[in-house]
Structure formats: structure tokens, C-alpha cells
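Example record

One chain of 389 residues, shown exactly as stored in the release files.
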Amino acid sequence: MDQSNILWVDFLANGTRLLEPDKMKELIQHALKSKITHLIVDAKIPYGFTTFPSEFAYHVSEMKDEQYHAWKGRDFLQEMILHAKGSGLKIIANVDIFAEGNGIEKEGMVYDKPEWQVVHYNQSLSNMPTAEENHNDPTVFVNPIHPEVEAYELNIIREIVSTYDIDGVVLDRCRYPNIYGDFSNLSKGKFEDYIGQELKNWPEDIMTVEEKKPIFGPLFPKWAEFRAKNIKNFVQKAKSVVKTKNSDLIFTIYVGSWYPLYYNEGVNWGSETFLPSLEWASETYHTTGYAEEFDFIMTGCYYNEVTMEEAESNGRPASWYSVEGAIDMSKEVINGKIPVIASLYLKDYTNNVEQFKKAVQLCKERSNGVMLFDTVYLEDYKWWSELDL
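Predicted C-alpha cells for this chain:
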């Protein structure tokens, strides 16, 4: 795979500015000038609304936030595709998968279908922060193994690949919200089937919570495996939808690079050939790895520290709390099976353009390119001219 320079266009952050077609054109021009190769355009946002008119989902103009009402009758995805047409830029449609509501506004599909919603370990813990998830984030998740949820998400992916002239699909939030969800009766029953025994102490055999921290129980490793297997099963079905439509379509995913903590998300984004030695991983955990399902993977190396040396001198708990360390870990876990594209969160470099440029350079040297999240920061920080790809 050649080096890819990928730019994410998040609808919630950019939708108001990009109401003007001239601003869309300007974005395409900036991207081309900066040697961006792929644009990721939101098709379905974290609250479950779609940026295109969907047969299944609510449109973004139906959100309570009035700034998005101006999108009524418009198709953000199609407009972006048309503006990029003939430019050579590849367009990848982003689909936020198991995120189906806004908990502050109490809106989204999850409020029509409360039975889909993730059941938390203890409902008072539903807003517990985990290592990678901002607990102020209002996103409400649905249970990945609810059969109606699965059918619904696959229908939306099918709708996108059947309707739009895109180059690929990226999955995001294709995971559990955190370690506290899902503890529904459905998940309990499916887990008992998975391990072939009835649970005597539910959910204590999986984990207990002390002083707002999870303490792993004897069955936690099998539980981590079960959750990761559920996500892999969905990924395989989503891949089939995309590739059946057109085997040349790119099928990719975004994940956080913090693999040792990814039991929180219930995901094993590594290769099946990678055997982790982590206290929470079962002996057969590697069978849940899904890297081989994708054409490439984008891992979030979301740290202000670029080098491992910087992470150490700043007192970070481990060397992988740096862009360099995160790339090394990503490559180790993927084990050479698919290309890895290191991804940066531009807000980590606010008021520090030199650190940003250093991070971009390192991503390009050490991985198969760079993914920049998000366009809005290039605009706000006036960094287009600083992009040296």
C-alpha cells in the first residue's frame, strides 16, 4: 500500500461551516494542495443520525440542535462526493455503528427502541469514565448482539454502498461503550451459551466495582473474549455487505491504539496471529482478532508526546502513551497482516504547530501514512499551510 494521507470530515464539527457549497469546494482545494489522498466523510454520526436521507434512520436536520436544521432536504454525503468528483481524492463514508442516541437531548433511535440500549453493570455507573472515553460524551450505545440492532446497522451500510459512488466505508464506534456495558439478560444468556455453563454469581464472576474501579472476577478473561468475538462477528457481516456490492471498495476501521486497555471497548483489533500476554486475556483471546477482515486499520495515536522519550520525561505510565510508542504497539499487534495508518487528534497540538508537524512526520515515517482528525482544527488553527505531506 502506498502512503495514504487521510483527512476526516466530522459532520458535527464541520456541518455548519460546510453549509455553503463554496466552503466545500474550498475544502477539496485545500485537501488537494496539501496532498491529502482520502477524505473520510460522515454518513452516520455518533448519535445515530445520518447525513443523507435514509430509509431507516433519522436525518441530521431532525436533531434538536437548531444549527443543523439548515440541512433539511440536503444530502451532505452526496454533496461532498460531487464536489470531490474528478479530483482524484478518494471518498470514504464513515458509519458510526453502535452509537444511537444523544443522552443530553434524549434523542436518537435508542429512544424509539429502548430495548436496544446497552444495560450497564449498575445503572448509576453508566457515566463512569474509562481510560479512553470522555465521560461527558452524551453518546448512548446499543447492544451489539441484539438481533434488531445488527440488522439495522447492516441495512444502513447496505443503503450507503448501494446508493453512493464512494471508494469505501470506515466503521467507527464499532464497539461497546466501556467496560460497564452490556450486562443485559440477553448478553448473560448468550455468554452462558458461549461458555457452556450457567452463571452462579452474575455479574460478580465477571467483575465487581470497588471505589469506582472494576475488579476482574474469575470469568473476566472469557467475558473479554466473548465481547470481542461479538464485535468480530458483526465486522465479518459488515464486510460481506460492502464487498458483495463491490470487492474493490475499501473496508477499514478506526480504533484507539491503547491495546492493553481495550477490554474497555470489548474489541480485539489485532491479528489472529498476535498472542497477547495480558492478565485479562484468555488463552484463546487471539481467535477474536479482526485485523485480517480489513484492508487497512487506523489507530488513534492520540498523545501530545511524539517520542517515547517525551512520554518518559513527562511521567507517562508507559512508553506507548506517545505517538511513537503507539505506532510501535499498533504494528506489533497487527503483526504485518494489514497496513497500519497512525492517526492524530489535532487538538492535542493546540498552539504547538512544531509538535504537530513532528507528529505528522513520525506517522509517515513509521506507518503507512497519517490520518488527521479533524478538519475543523486545520481551519481553526489556520494550519493548512503548515501541512507538509
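Notes: The chain is about 30% helix and 15% strand.
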